[in-house]
Amino acid sequence: MQMSTTLKIKKRTLWVIAVAVVLVVGFFFLKGNSRNEVSDVANNAIGAQVGNIALDFSLKDVSGNVVSLSQFKGKKVVLAFFATWCTPCQIEASRLKQVDDETGGEKFVVYQIGVDNRESEDDLRNFKNQFGNDDWIVGFGFDVAQKYNVRSLDTTLIIDENGKIVYRDNGVPASFEDLRKYLT
After folding, report:
1. Which one of 3.40.30.10, 3.40.710.10, 3.40.640.10, 3.90.1720.10 gives the CATH number of domain 58-183?
2. What is the pTM of this model?
């Protein structure tokens, strides 16, 4: 009789442990999903993901003009986060210029956003003169880079005519094929 009582206690203990393990695993699984959902909501809220509507912003360009993203509704827009010394940024700017020249400068707007606080407005102007076109908008935008979750230089976003982000690269110059695909 004592053997069966001991066996019942062992079974009950194993059962309680099994239920506890399932509850703990379930708790961590649900908690992990909640964290991912919050992260997804945060990314959507800041307009950082392909498929999201781009977050509006206003910046002063190197000519002293305040320019808002919303001014270009109905046009494709390239947001290129860069530093003048960044070689991949220079490569991509040259490619953008070539595609811009091929389309006659009518198809899209280029907004280059400098993110190195050691650089001056003259540095940005010189970069634009060397790698860009006269109608390109160039200015500093550290806060915009944060809002768009920029984590590396040469991050580029392409926004369609409806304000939706259709392309994003991080740290690698966009290919001619991608630029032509999304901008022409």
Report:
1. 3.40.30.10
2. 0.73
